[in-house]
Every structure is written in C-alpha cells, then in structure tokens.
Amino acid sequence: MLKTLFKSNKKLALILIKTQREVFSKITGDNTSKRRGEGYDFIELREYESCDDIRHIDWIVSSKIGKPYVKLFHQQRELNVVIAPLLCGSLHFGTTALKKDLLTQICALISYSCVKQNDPFESYICSDEVFLCTQKTKQKFGVRTLVEKIDAYDVLGKTLDYVQITQTLYTQLQHKSILFLIGDFFDTQNLNIKALSLKHEVIVIIVRDRFEEHPAQLGELNITDPALGMSADMTLNKATLKSYTKKIFEHDNELYKKLQRAGIRFIKIYTDEDPAEKIISLMSRI
C-alpha cells in the first residue's frame, strides 16, 4: 500500500514511513495502567488477604510455601483517543516546512501510537465546519486515511469557528476520551474549552513557525493572508516588529492562562523541530 502511495504522493509516503518507524521502535508494549487489578501483565505474588479473590490464588506456590499466595496483575485499560486537527489558512506557512505538514506528522505519530498500544482512535477535521474524518479503529489503514484526508484538505481561505468546533465535539463525543486539539491557535479570543475539559481529557498541541513569533527585519514587502486571501503592503522595521512581538506575547500568555485554568495540558512544536520525541514522550505519560 505504501509503495502505491509513494508513487502518487512521495511526501505523504515519507511521513508515514518515518512516523511509523519512530513509534514502533520507541514505544514498547500495550497500554497498562499502574493500578492493580484483573489483567494479563503479572506483577508479583503476595500473601493472601481476606479481601482477595480466591480465583487469583496460586495453588502451586501456596502448596510449596504452606500459605495461600495470590497473583497480582496490571489492570488493562483501553483508551478512547480522538484526534482533532484544526485546519485553517494560517497553516499554509513555514520557513523550513509548512505548519500543515508538521500537523500531519503529529497526527500520524499519535495515531500510530494508538495502533502500537492497541487503543482505538477516531478523528475529526475541524475548520469552518466539523466532520468525521476516520471512524474508530485500531488498524494502520486508519492512520493512512487520516493523513491522506488532512493532506488533501485545502486550508487556503479557511478560518476557524472555535465556538462551533467546541460545541460540535462536545455533542458528538459521547464517551470520555483523550481529545487532542492540534493547530496554531491564533486569534483564540473566542476559544472556550472549559466544558470539553470537564467531559474529556483535553490535550492541546500548538504548531508554530519561529518566524511568526520572532520575525526578521525585512523592510517593505507585500503579505497575503492565507486565511482571508487579502494582500497588503507593510514594512517590517524595528518599531513594527516590537509592536507585533508584544501582541503575540500577550496573546499567547492569555492562551496559556486559559488552558491552565481549564486544567488542560499543552505543548508547542515548531516547524524546525522533529515532533517524534515530544509526541512519543507525551503518549507514554497518558
């Protein structure tokens, strides 16, 4: 299947090959909680207590020691994972790589991690509308479907309606899930995910290009807004850059406070970074 994709879309095939190799070489085993309970991963033997289930008594060991001993196991858990890329025109930007391509890699890493850990995942594309991208699955073909649909989605001219996105996800997601919201998170004045965070465990992944936060003095140039399609002449001098970076700092500071008040974990990944290490580390702590 990847050979066929390699012929038609080399970039996407390389993303899938790289992310699959990263995940399957660095993540070991299925997902197990640290709670003791009924499962399949053996922890240890200990002496029987009155509250223990007699079905867990190891009769061979007990007969040798002369006292009843029970087996303890890791309790198996299955996570419901929802991947929600926030696709808008501002993702069509990047100095070393497009933010959209970085977002695609992140989605592939998360979904491959679910496959490796035997957890089901589903995905929704969130833009000026919200729709189901892939149905719940534990299979690798679901990863390919997800990244193909993201890659094929034309973000130019698209803006985000955070109110509609959060309301739709709140209504659609019936079972408690781990919800990944992935986007560049600009213009988040109307972002309110407190209700979502009370119903689900929400994790925000911010994708950015360093130039957006610390642009260089390039003088006079014409800039086109990929979300609105509008062009304007502007001058990137010391004064305008100072004002711009101040606004970005204040915006992000408010965003971080908003996420922290809602008890939401978040990380930021830049286009000049390899996202594998951060995503695999994040998935291992879930």
Explain this structure to me?
By secondary structure, this protein is α/β, with parallel strands linked by helices. It folds into two domains: 32-76, no CATH class; 78-284, von Willebrand factor, type A domain (Rossmann fold, 3-Layer(aba) Sandwich). The protein is 41% helix and 25% strand. It has ten helices and eleven strands. The strands form three sheets. The chain has a six-stranded mixed sheet, sandwiched between helices. A hairpin with a 3-residue loop joins strand 5 and strand 6 (130-137). Helix 2 crosses helix 4. The longest helix has 24 residues, at 238-261. It comes from Sulfurimonas autotrophica (strain ATCC BAA-671 / DSM 16294 / JCM 11897 / OK10). Residues 44-251 form the DUF58 domain. It holds the Pfam family DUF58. This is DUF58 domain-containing protein.
Sheet with most strands: 6 strands, mixed
Number of domains: 2
Q: Overall mean pLDDT score?
A: 87
CATH top level label of the largest domain: Alpha Beta
Q: Calculate the terminal CA-CA distance, rounded to whole Å.
A: 31 Å
Radius of gyration, taken over Cα atoms and rounded to an integer in Å: 23 Å
Q: Please bin the fraction of helical residues.
A: 40-55%
Spatial shape: elongated
The fourth-level CATH homologous superfamily of the largest domain is von Willebrand factor, type A domain
